[in-house]
Amino acid sequence: MKVAFFSTKSYDRRFFESINANYGHELTFFEAPLNANTTPLATDFPAVCMFVNDIADAHTLKNLASCGTKLLALRSAGFNTVDLKQAAELGIKVVRVPAYSPYAVAEHAVALILALNRKIYRAYNRVRDDNFALEGLLGFDLHGCTVGVIGTGRVGMVFAQIMRGFGCTILGYDAYPNEQFSQYVSLPELFEQSDIISLHCPLLPETHHLIDETAIVQMKPGMMLINTSRGALIDTTAVIAGIKSGKIGYLGIDVYEQEESLFFQDLSDTIIQDDTFQLLQSFPNVLITAHQAFFTRNALEAIATTTLLNITEFEQGHPLKNEVAYPFALV
Ligand code: NAD
């Protein structure tokens, strides 16, 4: 099947071309993001493959439908930028990669915790500058800490398991509890008791700005907040106020609410216009990575394999195992 890939980088091309040897689809790679302006590139492609910050809103989907697109294959788990209702009305099927490597994302969340706690990013720069002083690098033992996990799905469960290995007490909150996890508490209890809170739930209307002013008021002073899920789970303005007041002692984020205009590109020669992002960057207790939690070779192989399999299922008229149908039911 002819597939138009949007927002592609060299690593997408490398992994997809290699694994496509087993599937035989006709792949065309575009660097442009998918949005209402770039849809003419998809003309005569029955399948379009998009990534996390591509926009498949109503306008884009209508354009795609008129270009002949029948399948939207997301090479991601999250689907918050797709208007599923519109896709259903236009008869465009949407498929995704629900699971690739929960270890990649969970381990990155742990990397953020360790780097923030022991200030590895500051220590690295100091030592390179022949500054061997320890002032300002004081950390704390993870052993004995209470860690709150919001969203105990694939990533949240792996994250909880790793943190248990450090000797932490784990508390969880999930709108749809699972039987493998036993330490569920209410959200207010999780906010009140956790030294570290890590977000592992999807971005949905009900989780938008889950971490807002009301949530932050309930948290322990000096707590650590980690977000590797989706930027808009956090009300960034409220979090900045929380950092300034000292309520939030550490912030580690791999995702940012307005990341579409920043992440996945080299902007080192430009002036960043996003003042909120620049303010966040200026705090010594904030560590930002640019949506790289998924970025392991194991995950990229799994993403390419599942995406190409999803496309084959559609081409052959088989049931779509990884369809994101409207309305989408989580359980
Ligand atoms: P998953 O579907 O296995 O788990 C999500 C969990 O969130 C489920 O247990 C679900 O019941 C729970 N949930 C749903 N609504 C909730 C609510 N209102 N409150 C609390 N919990 C709720 O997904 P996963 O594979 O564990 O991935 C988790 C998230 O990680 C994804 O939604 C995605 O946004 C993010 N992610 C980020 C990256 C990255 O590179 N940074 C990569 C992959 C996934």
Topology of this protein?
Layout: E1 2-5, H1 10-20, E2 26-29, E3 47-50, H2 58-67, E4 71-74, H3 84-90, E5 93-95, H4 102-118, H5 120-128, E6 146-150, H6 154-165, E7 169-173, H7 187-193, E8 196-199, H8 213-218, E9 223-227, H9 236-245, E10 248-253, H10 275-282, E11 286-288, H11 297-315
Parallel strand pairs: 1-2, 1-3, 3-4, 4-5, 6-7, 6-8, 8-9, 9-10, 10-11
The protein binds nicotinamide-adenine-dinucleotide (NAD).
Residues 77-78, 99, 102, 105, 150-156, 173-176, 200-202, 204, 206-207, 228-230, 254-255, 291, 293-294, 330 line the site of nicotinamide-adenine-dinucleotide.
SSE series? EHEEHEHEHHEHEHEHEHEHEH
Mean pLDDT: 97
CATH architecture of the largest domain: 3-Layer(aba) Sandwich
- Helical content class: 25-40%
Query: Main β-sheet, in a few words?
Result: 6 strands, parallel
User: Low-confidence stretches at least 5 residues in length (pLDDT < 50)?
Assistant: none
Strand order of the largest sheet: 7-6-8-9-10-11
Strand content: 5-15%
What is the class of the largest domain in the CATH system? Alpha Beta
